Amino acid sequence: MAIHPFHLSFAVDDLERAKRFYGEVLQCRVRHEDEHSIDFDFFGHVVSARLADGGSVSSARSGGESGSLWSFGVCLDSERWDALTAVVSRAGVALGEPPSVSPDRLMLRDPAGNTLEFILGRGRSAPVAANDEAIGMTIDPAAIGATLTAVTMGIDAFERSRPRGTSLLDGEGLVPIYMGTDLVPARRYASWDEVQEDLAALESSVGQVPDGTRAVFLRGMLTSLKVAVRLFAGASPSFEEKVRDLVGAPIGPVDPAVIEDIRGRLDSLLRRQGAVRGDLGERIKAWEEGRFVDPERLEATFSELLAQAKARTDARIIDTGDYEMALNPVRDMPFTARCNFNQGQMDLNVDQRFTRSALKHLVCHEVHPGHVTQLLYTWAEVEAGRSDADALLCTANTVTGCVQEGIGDQAVQLIDWIEDEDDEIHLELRRLRSAAQTSAAWHLMVDGWPADRVAEYLRRTAFGQEAWIQGRLRMAAHPFRGPFIASYWAGNESVRRVRERVPASQRPAFLTYLYGQVHSPESLEMFSPATP
């Protein structure tokens, strides 16, 4: 049913304050203004803030009689509700008097004391698209971003609420690290059917977003979320579907010719250092063992590398402020390292040994300019209103994870920190292992290779330590995390391809595009300096 816009006039005592509140805080477009009044677009309607006679609103109360000042508002669908609550959260002290917020009602006062009341519509059908069309407006991508974020965090919260042992992610959640609780709160769900309804409504709205990088990302993200919800609800999508649609990575093993090319470069680099005796695996083993950091020096080396990584990140990407991270040694984990952002720790699996170059890579990947930098950057952009709210989903176990891992694996290059041939060798070795683990997971989960054969493939092809090999097998077999093994290779290659084609003059624009919003690999590779 079409809606008919209303027009409402109300009194204010200061037009400039009214303009800041309605125009800047609530982001209502100014339609007309003169010395006596300002007309605003107000959620598809028109409201006029008129200067009260004598500049005092006391003589301009509702109906011209004594009593309360004007009180008005609108009922909002879920998308606009999420967008509004995000805007109000960001506004903070600019509101003056704190708003009153409940799950389905928000009340606040303008600077003149007029009360605005917003009510969340009971239906989940999100009629915003039909309404906008009826009154000649276009879909609001920022509102879609806020709703996408609220829905995604609602999925995260609902999955985390399941009893221990029945959750696929055992409490880790769909979004392991989220800094936007005060900006965009999570939707509340009681069933996966409710989630599916909201995803369907979002898909309808996303279908109206104009073609471009934004539409490509939103479509990929929705596809990813739908697969995640099916998994959480008990379905069993194929490994191929999970790699393609949940992760956003190419299906299949990495081309063996690509792997051989990387091995050839490693061979050449080692020969340049005089390592010529033995086969490639023997030479790599000797090279690593001769450079392993003494376990007693691990924490000191970590601190030294972190200080340098932070300084280079601050100079080249963003001032990371006073955030600190400590080393936390762990054992018997399927991962090599993990960013434990909320605890201020980088978990490091000390069942493995690390060269200085390997530790440098992990510091850059997990901290600066990798995961921690991306979290700080996206939060600052959303909080300042420069990025849509879904930038806060940079750590989600969805298509955004590909680019997150790509930033991490390209982190040393992003801050121009290749110091010597040891760094060059490690970067090729890391790329080799990323490609090999992607192929190994495919062979295990799709081709039906037994675990022993896959382990031998990793030993022979990637020359990994045994703790790393066993960790890869554990991860690959996990029904949700397994396909994300492919995110490292796919993400690294996407970020690398764009980074290598961007000239120095366009580097700042690329970094803003890379860090300031979230991407799928497909939307990332659409980068150009003129990309909206």
From TrEMBL:
Sorted UniProt keywords: Dioxygenase, Oxidoreductase
Residue ranges annotated for the Glyoxalase/fosfomycin resistance/dioxygenase domain, each copy included: 7-118
Pfam families xref list: Glyoxalase
The keyword Oxidoreductase is assigned to this record: yes
Domain of life per record: Bacteria
Name listed for the protein in its UniProt record: Extradiol dioxygenase family protein
GO molecular function: dioxygenase activity
The keyword GTP-binding is annotated on this UniProt entry: no
InterPro entries given in the database record: Glyas_Bleomycin-R_OHBP_Dase (IPR029068), Glyas_Fos-R_dOase_dom (IPR004360)
